[in-house]
Design goal:
Order of helices and strands of chain A: EHEHEEEHHHHHHEEHEEEEEEEHHH
Largest interface: A-B, 28 and 33 residues
Strand order of the largest sheet of chain A: 4-5-10-6-7
Helix content of chain B: 25-40%
Helix content of chain A: 25-40%
Shape of chain A: globular
Number of helices of chain B: 5
Shape of chain B: globular
Largest sheet of chain B: 5 strands, mixed
Largest sheet of chain A: 5 strands, antiparallel
Distance between the termini of chain B: 67 Å
Number of strands of chain B: 5
Radius of gyration of chain B: 17 Å
Oligomer: heterodimer
Strand content of chain A: 15-25%
Radius of gyration of chain A: 19 Å
Order of helices and strands of chain B: EEHEEEHHHH
Structural class of chain A: alpha+beta
Strand content of chain B: 5-15%
Distance between the termini of chain A: 46 Å
C-alpha cells in the first residue's frame, strides 16, 4: 500500500519546523516516529499534502528533571522510556506502560509525544499523562501555550493541537517521596491494543492520600480521567473501603463499547478490578516496596 | 504532484543513491529499487515484522518508514548476513534447529535476533520470546525459532571466546 503523494520536509531546527507548519496550515502534518501516522497514510485515512519530519532535529530526543518538572521531548521514543532508569525508579506508571506499548520493533521508533498527539482512545500514553496530571506545551511560530492533559483530548483522534502547532514538550510534576504508580493493561496478545487499561498515580503523605490520579484506556471516545474516583481518594488512608469506592467510581466513569474484545459489562468490570489492583500496587510502591 | 527526492542510503555497507518519491516506503526501495528481495512484505500494516530490517543497527518495520527517512543512514538487510558466502551463525542455527518452515518470516526473525544478540549474548528463553514478539510466524514454529536463537548465541559466544583464550594463553 502506498500513501497518497505528499511533499516531504526535513527541518533541522524547531524554528524551521514551526515556520513550515505556519506556512502550510491545514496541509501540513508533523511526522515523528510514524508508527501510527504512516499506517494511516497507507490506508488513506489521512492524506496531508505536506509532511514535516522532525526526526532530523536531534535535540528533541530528551528526558530530564529540572526545576521540579520532568520534561520529555517530542522525539523521546518508547524504547528509551522502557530503558530509562529514572522512570523505573521514580515514575512507576510510565515504566509500567512503556514495555506494554505495541511490540519491541514499533517501540524502537514510536515516540511518546507522537502517540499523545495521535490521540487514539486505545492509546496508552494519554491515559498515563492524565493520571500524572501532565502539562503539554504546544508551540506555533508566534505563540507557546501550555494545556493540561485533561483539556488536551477532545474525542477520538482529536486534540487541542492546531495544525500550525507542534507538541514540543510534555511536563510532569517531578516525583516526590511517598509517590507510586502502576499501569495495568489487558490485551488479547502481546502487541495488541488494550481491551482495557488503567493508569494509577498516588501521592501519599503520612499515611493519607494527598493526591490520586486515575486514567482509563480504550473505554470511551478518548482517554478518560476518572476525576470523581480521584476526588474520593483524597484524604483517605486508602483502606479497603476507600479502594472499593474509588474502583466503583472509576468503573462508572468508563464509557466502553461492546466489540470483539468484550462486552460493556466485562470491560467495566475490568476497570473496577484493575483500579483496585493498581491502587494497591501504587500504594506498595509509594511505601518503597514493589 | 510531488517531486523526486535524491537520497543516498548505505545498504549492507554499500552506498546506494536514487531519486525517489517521498511516499515510497523503505521496503519498496529495498525490494524494487535495489532488487534486494530477501526482505519480505507480509501484512503491510505494521503487525507482522516480516519486513524488519536494521536501520543504524536497530530493528525497524520497513513498511512503516519512508525511504527518504533513511537518507544518510545505514540499512542492513538479510542479504548482508551471509557475507563472504558462509552462513552467519544465526542462519546456520535456524537451518540446524529447523527454525523455519515456509521461511517467509525468517529474514525478519533473524535480523531481530541479530540485534538482540548484539545487546545480550546469553538471552533466556523469555528474553528471546519477548524480543521476537513483534515478529509473527504463521507456521507457528516458535519453539524451534527460540532454540535456534539460543543455539546461535552459544555458537557466537564460543567463537568469541576462542580468540580471547588464545590471547590469554599468549600473555
Amino acid at each position: 500500500m502506498l500513501p497518497a503523494a505528499f511533499e516531504y520536509h526535513a527541518p533541522r531546527t524547531v524554528d524551521e519546523a514551526l515556520e513550515l507548519l505556519d506556512q502550510l496550515g491545514d496541509e501540513g502534518k508533523v511526522l515523528a516516529g510514524g508508527q501510527s501516522l504512516i499506517p494511516l497514510l497507507k490506508l488513506r485515512f489521512a492524506s496531508p499534502a505536506h509532511l514535516v519530519d522532525i526526526n532530523g532535529i536531534k535535540e528533541l530526543d530528551y528526558i530530564e528533571e529540572r526545576d521540579g518538572t520532568l520534561r520529555i521531548g517530542p522525539l523521546f521514543r518508547h524504547k528509551a522510556a522502557e530503558r530509562s532508569s529514572l522512570l523505573a525508579s521514580r515514575y512507576h506508571v510510565m515504566a509500567d506502560a512503556a514495555p506494554q506499548i505495541a511490540d519491541p520493533i514499533i517501540r524502537n521508533r514510536g515516540t511518546i509525544a507522537g502517540s499523545v498527539a495521535h490521540a487514539d482512545p486505545s492509546g496508552d500514553w494519554g491515559t498515563v499523562l492524565l493520571a500524572l496530571d501532565a502539562d503539554l506545551v504546544l508551540r506555533s511560530k508566534s505563540e507557546s501555550r501550555t494545556v493540561k492533559a485533561r483539556d488536551f483530548f477532545s474525542g477520538p483522534f482529536s486534540t487541542a493541537l492546531k495544525p500550525t502547532e507542534m507538541l514540543t514538550e510534555i511536563r510532569i510534576p517531578a516525583a516526590k517521596a511517598q509517590s507510586g504508580g502502576a499501569y495495568l493493561k489487558l490485551e488479547r496478545k502481546v502487541g495488541d491494543f488494550a481491551t482495557v487499561a488503567v493508569a494509577v498515580h498516588l501521592q501519599m503523605d503520612d499515611g493519607k492520600v494527598r493526591a490520586a490520579g486515575i486514567g482509563l484506556t480504550a473505554v470511551g471516545p478518548q482517554n478518560i480521567k476518572a476525576e470523581r474516583a480521584e476526588a474520593a481518594l483524597r484524604g483517605t488512608r486508602l483502606d479497603d473501603a476507600a479502594i472499593k469506592e474509588a474502583a466503583a467510581l472509576a468503573a462508572e466513569a468508563a464509557e466502553p463499547k461492546a466489540d470483539l474484545r468484550g462486552s460493556v459489562e466485562y470491560k467495566r468490570n475490568v476497570v473496577r478490578v484493575f483500579t483496585e489492583r493498581g491502587l494497591k500496587r501504587a500504594y506498595e510502591r509509594a511505601r518503597g516496596g514493589g | 504532484m510531488s517531486m523526486g527526492q535524491s537520497i543516498t542510503v548505505t545498504v549492507n555497507g554499500e552506498k546506494r543513491s536514487a531519486e525517489v518519491e517521498p511516499r515510497l516506503l523503505l521496503v519498496h526501495f529495498i525490494r524494487e529499487t535495489l532488487r534486494l528481495t530477501g526482505t519480505h512484505i507480509g501484512c503491510d500494516t505494521t503487525h507482522c515484522g516480516a519486513c524488519t530490517v536494521l536501520v543504524e543497527g536497530v530493528p525497524v518495520k520497513s513498511c512503516t518508514m519512508l525511504a527518504v527517512q533513511a537518507n544518510g543512514q545505514q540499512v542492513t538487510t538479510v542479504e548482508a548476513l551471509a557475507a563472504g558466502g558462509s552462513l552467519h551463525p544465526i542462519q546456520a542455527a535456524f537451518k540446524q534447529e529447523h527454525g523455519l518452515q515456509c521461511g517467509f518470516c525468517t529474514p525478519g526473525m533473524m535480523l531481530t535476533s541479530v540485534a538482540l544478540l548484539k545487546e545480550n549474548q546469553d538471552p533466556t528463553d523469555d528474553e528471546i520470546r519477548w524480543a521476537l514478539s513483534g515478529n509473527i510466524c504463521r507456521c507457528t514454529g516458535y519453539m524451534n525459532i527460540v532454540k535456534a536463537v539460543k543455539s546461535a548465541a552459544a555458537q557466537m559466544s564460543a567463537a568469541a571466546a576462542v580468540p580471547a583464550a588464545t590471547a590469554a594463553a599468549r600473555s
